[in-house]
Amino acid sequence: MARIAILTVSDSGAAGGRGDVSGDTAERRCIAAGHTVAARAIVADERESIAARLREWADSGIADWVVTTGGTGLTERDVTPEATRDVAERDVPGVPVALWVNGLKQTPFAVLSRGVAVQRKRTVIVNLPGNPRAVAEGMDVLLPLFPHAARLMAGPMEHTTPADSGRA
Question: Does the domain made of 3-156 have the CATH classification 3.40.50.880?
Answer without folding.
Answer: no
